[in-house]
């Protein structure tokens, strides 16, 4: 007998395919009925213990249709080796059947360590810099003494804390070549111990990487936090413009910077597909082929957003991801 499950949590369109390997008791499929607030991402975590499985399923099931089109009342047939979307038979507004025994799936979240970095866009200026170190050392670390160009004239006082960053090269857009900002990576934190009018003395309270003179300072805020996964409320399309490591090729667990920010409606927690365009080979086509469906190569979750750029954590990759690959979120239609 077919089983019907209802799942509770926020709807994430792309997570539809995470349930592809749920084991059926027989050749009869398991039937899932989607209702408002459901997420199959959560179902995958619940039954497969692997919420990131969906790209692997896509890779092995090229015939699966557009995964964005799921909606309340829709029935999904889950086999051991594939997923089939049943034609819609439920009228809009008709509630799906819910089993009382089913409990809501816990909200999915990601721990952000604060070591991800970001693109410093034009107009975002540092609070100050480390201008020298104790004994003029070029490299310092935790518990070492440094001096900054932040003083009481800037509103600073003893006990104020700042995050320490290293500014790297400017980042240009892979398509337009427009400069988007300068890549910065976190080095550690410091606390002011003595404050004069224009300068101050400070102690390094935490060190992630080597710290030296010239390092820039920004007001401190606790970077270690949980980012809750959520669906975009409007369509988004952009590009991976740089990677934290500087490597052209990245994969799961790596950090990427994208050309979408608050002005484009990006929020931390948004889930974006990573896509690559497929170039048609006209010599084998009898008709002119201008565009083919893009290849899905992975997904990322936005962990920090600036005005026009954001930092993303790659949560799944089924192929090598490159600078210049597209990112996209599509709302249900």
TrEMBL record:
Keywords in alphabetical order: Signal
Keyword Disulfide bond tagged: no
Coiled coil: none
InterPro entries assigned: Bact_Kbp, LysM, LysM_dom_sf
Domain LysM: 30-78
PANTHER family linked: PHAGE-LIKE ELEMENT PBSX PROTEIN XKDP, POTASSIUM BINDING PROTEIN KBP
SUPFAM superfamilies xref list: LysM domain (SSF54106)
Species for this entry: Geobacter metallireducens (strain ATCC 53774 / DSM 7210 / GS-15)
Record's protein name: LysM domain protein
Signal peptide (from-to): 1-24
Any Pfam family matching the protein: LysM
């Amino acid at each position: 007998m077919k089983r019907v499950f209802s799942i509770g949590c926020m709807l994430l369109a792309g997570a539809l395919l995470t349930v592809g390997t749920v084991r059926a008791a027989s050749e009869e499929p398991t039937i899932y009925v989607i209702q408002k607030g459901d997420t199959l991402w959560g179902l995958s975590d619940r039954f497969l213990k692997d919420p990131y499985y969906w790209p692997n399923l896509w890779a092995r099931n090229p015939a699966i249709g557009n995964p964005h089109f799921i909606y309340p009342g829709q029935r999904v047939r889950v086999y051991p080796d594939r997923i089939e979307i049943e034609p819609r038979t439920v009228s809009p507004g008709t509630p799906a059947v819910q089993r009382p025994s089913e409990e809501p799936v816990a909200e999915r979240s990601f721990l952000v360590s604060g070591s991800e970095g970001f693109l410093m866009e034009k107009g975002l200026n540092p609070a100050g810099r480390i201008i020298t170190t104790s004994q003029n050392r070029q490299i310092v670390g935790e518990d070492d003494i440094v001096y900054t160009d932040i003083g009481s004239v800037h509103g600073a006082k003893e006990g104020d804390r700042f995050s320490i960053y290293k500014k790297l090269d400017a980042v240009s857009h892979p398509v337009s070549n427009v400069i988007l900002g300068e890549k910065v990576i976190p080095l550690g934190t410091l606390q002011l111990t003595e404050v004069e009018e224009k300068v101050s003395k400070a102690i390094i309270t935490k060190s992630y990487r080597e710290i030296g003179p010239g390092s820039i300072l920004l007001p401190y805020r606790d970077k270690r936090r949980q980012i809750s996964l959520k669906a975009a409320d409007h369509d988004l399309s952009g590009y991976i413009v740089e990677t934290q490591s500087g490597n052209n090729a990245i994969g799961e667990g790596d950090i990427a910077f994208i050309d979408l920010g608050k002005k484009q409606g990006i929020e931390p927690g948004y889930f974006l597909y990573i896509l690559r365009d497929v170039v048609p080979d006209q010599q084998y086509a009898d008709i002119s082929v201008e565009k083919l469906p893009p290849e899905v190569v992975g997904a990322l979750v936005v962990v920090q957003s600036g005005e026009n750029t954001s930092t993303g954590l790659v949560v799944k990759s089924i192929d090598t991801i490159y600078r210049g690959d597209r990112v996209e979120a599509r709302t249900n239609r």
